[in-house]
Amino acid sequence: MFDRIADRLWKRRGTQVLQLEANLLRVLGKDTTPELLAATSRKGVRSALRYYSEAFRMNGWDRKRILDSVDIADEDRARVAEVVHSDRGAVLALGHTGNYDHAGAWLIATHSIEFTTVAENLKPEAVAERFWDYRRKLGMEVLPHDGGPSVVGTLARRLREGRTVCLVADRDLGASGIPVDFFGEATRIAAGPAALAVQTNCGLYPVNLWYSGPGRMGIRVHPEIPVPPEGTRQEKIARMTQALADAYAEGIAAHPEDWHMLQKYFLADLDPGKTPPSAPATLAE
User: Fold this and answer.
1) For residues 242-258, b (16+ Cβ closer than 10 Å) or e, as one string?
2) What pLDDT does 56 receive?
3) How far is residue 251's CA from residue 52's CA, in Å, rounded to a whole number?
4) Cα 203 from Cα 226, distance rounded (Å)
5) Per residue in 17-46, pLDDT tens?
6) Residue segments in the chain with a per-residue pLDDT below the cut of 70
7) In this predicted model, what pLDDT tens digit does every residue of 124-154 receive, in sequence order?
8) Which of 10, 156, 194, 228 has the smallest set of CB atoms within 10 Å of its CB?
9) Among the listed residues 34, 54, 36, the one whose alpha carbon sits nearest the alpha carbon of residue 46
10) Cα(9)–Cα(11) distance, rounded to whole angstroms?
11) Which of 177, 191, 204, 207 is CA-nearest to residue 267?
12) Distance CA 244, CA 223 (A)
């Protein structure tokens, strides 16, 4: 049913579908044929709608189904186990790819831990509360994005306690984003993961997600991005954030159809001085 909805939305060629194709063109290359771009964007819209399809059903999945629905290399599986059970604390930094709630549910079911995350404030508030409640039922501690300094303080405390923080951080939702090179163009992504690593000395690990098959999720956990030994605090954050962007780009290049970036993202597409919009990625238009 959601595939049929996605195909109808894709055929309407609305603003967000066109923007998805503009973003994908940076990934696939400017010499990409119209046919390949169209095929990839159609898969992309289906992938984006799949996230919402699973959101309706995941609270009903039992632990065995969650455990059996993830494809992850043995090396990455071992890295996750070491990270979440150490006393150091870790930030797992994800992008808008695949289904990060699915990955979070797998992490909780596999390692019997609770992690902390930050969620956008969707409009209307009733919708935001439904999504927060959905994630809490999966076992996550959810903090609101607009909670101000108290949110950053809570994240830092969790990390100093040796706990895990998972952040979707491939977009700049405020005015503090870090400029990065992304597929040969300029954009800004969130400074939070790198800033927390510099502040608390926790580990910072990029994570790529993609759909590896019907009902299945692929997970890649990259090696730690270390805090540079030299430079100012801001220089360290900038270098770590570029490394994070490079890891995101690697995953998106491998699975471009699972990158759910339906809004303006590259600075060339934005009005001068504006940051990427904080509106949720929907296909309502």
Assistant:
1) bbbbebbbebbeebbbb
2) 78
3) 21
4) 7
5) 999 999 999 999 999 999 999 999 999 999
6) 121-123, 125-128, 146-149, 173-175, 271-285
7) 766 667 777 778 887 888 888 766 668 899 9
8) 228
9) 54
10) 5
11) 177
12) 11
Residue 144 in tokens: 């609101």
Backbone angles phi, psi at 205, to 5 degrees: -130, 115
Task: Return the axis-axis angle of helices 34-57 and 15-28, rounded to nearest 10°.
Answer: 120
Helix axes 15-28, 2-12, angle to 10 degrees: 90
User: Phi, psi at residue 256, to the nearest 5°?
Assistant: -65, -30
Read off the tokens for 193: 């993961």
Q: Which residues contact 15 (CB under 8 A, 6 or more apart)?
A: 285
Q: Which two tokens stand for residue 167?
A: 């952040």
User: Do residues 219 and 207 make contact, with C-beta atoms less than 8 angstroms apart?
Assistant: yes
Q: Among 224, 207, 201, 228, which Cα is nearest to 88's?
A: 201
**In 29-148, which ranges are continuous DSSP H helix?**
34-57, 63-68, 74-84, 100-111, 125-138
Furthest-apart CA atoms within the chain: distance in Å: 53
pLDDT tens-digit profile of 263-272?
Answer: 999 999 986 5
Q: What is the 3-state secondary structure (H, E, C) of 117-180?
A: EEECCCCCHHHHHHHHHHHHHHCCEEEECCCCHHHHHHHHHHHHCCCEEEEECCCCCCCCCEEE
Tell me the β-bridge partners of 118.
Answer: 143
Q: Which residues contact 78 (CB under 8 A, 6 or more apart)?
A: none
d(CA 257, CA 179): 24
The one-letter amino acid code at 80 reads V
Pairing of strands 116-119, 164-168: parallel
